[in-house]
């Protein structure tokens, strides 16, 4: 590129970055606005272009300006302009970065800075809703991802080649991260209605959601009419979560080995959602009553992470040994039993077995079907035990059976097509 053209581009880019950040500060009615930020960015760029040694002097000037801004605010008995001062200093550094020719870094940082400044209210509101357990959970996720994961060996450590510490730990990271995202959504939207709680709670823990729905019905008899709908929504969310987890861990090997598994889960999920929609349309009533949030703990507290990790490790070892000793029957038994404790762990295990090629596509499809059925029936039993209403429990069985029958039909068709 021609040297003159490059010089013009640097000056223009520096001015654009200053104008972008300064526009937000001007909109926020700060003393340092569009002109101040544009000039600060240009000062950094020009200093570097003249001579890098000049940067030391101009940085000192920017620091003096920051000091004067805060002294002025102090004398006027206003809040100190800490955020504006830092933004001004960063804008100056971005101007230097443009002078060095790193356009991508400068523009990326400028956009992030502008977003952080303009989302002040949203960020403060969001942080105000966080609990200390959730903050600690976020730190824990960062620790297990950035510190522990790189230290683990990336090879099997047992005589049967079943336990790869890094693979198991990566599974814990992914599942914990997904659960935490669902949990945050539930914390934000859970008070808008019991149906939101049913869906989002089903994504996190369908069994705990069944407990909540049972308690809602016990405390408010009017919720009985909505009970089948809410349980079906939680079931739909659980099946969706199982589908996502199988996809996530099986797809590195390709879609074909996971296809029978996915063909079973998708119709079952659609059946649950379709039945819930029919019930909603038949009632023709919008539930506006806010519900309590499901009594779910943050999935990123140390105890939850360790319990899931130990459960998944146990399922990995036991299912591997059962498969070696008893064949596919042993593997299926472990998956079903594991689903009663954690459907997510069974789904992940099925996906990993598909990805490693250690289980065929049909046994994997049967395994995820049985695990899903175990979860569906477990939700009914939990709800029935809490409410102690046999008539309502039989209604839930009546609405759940079509979901199971559709899964059986798809499974039989898959087997017939395979044998043909």
TrEMBL record:
Residues 12-123 form the MgtC/SapB/SrpB/YhiD N-terminal domain. One of its GO terms (cellular component) is plasma membrane. Residues 173-386 form the DUF4010 domain. InterPro entries: DUF4010, MgtC/SapB/SrpB/YhiD_fam, MgtC_SapB_SrpB_YhiD_N. The chain crosses the membrane at residues 6-23, 32-50, 56-75, 104-123, 135-152, 167-186, 232-252, 258-281, 302-322, 328-350, 362-386, 398-419. Its main location: membrane. This is DUF4010 domain-containing protein. It holds the Pfam family DUF4010. It comes from the Bacteria. It is a multi-pass membrane protein. It is found in: Cell membrane. Belongs to the MgtC/SapB family. Keywords: Cell membrane, Membrane, Transmembrane, Transmembrane helix. The keyword Acyltransferase does not apply. It comes from Ktedonosporobacter rubrisoli.
């Amino acid at each position: 590129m021609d040297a003159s053209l490059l010089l013009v581009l640097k000056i223009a880019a520096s001015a654009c970055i200053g104008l972008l950040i300064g526009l937000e500060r001007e909109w926020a009615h700060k003393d340092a606005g569009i002109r101040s930020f544009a000039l600060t960015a240009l000062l950094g760029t020009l200093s570097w272009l003249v001579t890098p040694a000049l940067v030391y002097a101009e940085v000192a000037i920017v620091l003096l300006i920051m000091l004067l801004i805060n002294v002025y605010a102090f004398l006027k008995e206003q809040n100190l302009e800490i955020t504006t001062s830092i933004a001004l200093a960063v804008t100056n550094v971005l101007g230097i970065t443009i002078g060095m020719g790193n356009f991508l870094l400068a523009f990326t940082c400028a956009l992030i800075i502008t977003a952080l400044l303009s989302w002040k209210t949203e960020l403060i509101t969001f942080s105000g809703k966080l609990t200390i357990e959730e903050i600690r959970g976020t730190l824990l996720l960062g620790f297990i991802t950035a510190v522990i994961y790189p230290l683990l060996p990336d090879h099997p450590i047992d005589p049967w080649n079943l336990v790869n510490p890094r693979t198991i730990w990566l599974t814990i990271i992914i599942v914990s991260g997904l659960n935490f995202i669902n949990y945050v959504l539930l914390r934000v939207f859970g008070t808008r209605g019991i149906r939101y709680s049913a869906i989002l709670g089903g994504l996190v823990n369908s069994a705990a959601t069944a407990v909540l729905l049972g308690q809602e019905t016990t405390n408010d008899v009017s919720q009985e009419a909505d009970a089948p709908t809410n349980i079906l929504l939680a079931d739909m969310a659980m099946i969706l979560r199982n589908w996502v987890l199988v996809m996530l861990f099986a797809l590195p090997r390709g879609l074909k080995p996971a296809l029978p598994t996915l063909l079973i889960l998708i119709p079952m999920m659609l059946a649950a959602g379709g039945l819930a929609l029919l019930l909603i349309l038949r009632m023709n009533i919008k539930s506006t009553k806010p519900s309590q949030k499901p009594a779910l703990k943050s999935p990123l507290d140390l105890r939850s992470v360790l319990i899931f990790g130990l459960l998944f490790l146990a399922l990995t070892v036991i299912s591997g040994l059962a498969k070696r000793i008893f064949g596919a029957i042993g593997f299926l038994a472990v998956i079903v039993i594991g689903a009663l404790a954690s459907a997510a762990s069974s789904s992940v295990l099925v996906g990993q077995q598909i990805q490693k090629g250690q289980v065929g596509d049909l046994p994997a499809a049967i395994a995820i079907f049985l695990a899903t059925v175990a979860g569906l029936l477990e939700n009914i039993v939990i709800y029935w035990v809490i409410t102690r209403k046999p008539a309502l429990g039989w209604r839930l069985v009546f609405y759940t059976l079509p979901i199971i029958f559709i899964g059986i039909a798809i499974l039989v068709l898959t087997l017939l097509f395979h044998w043909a």
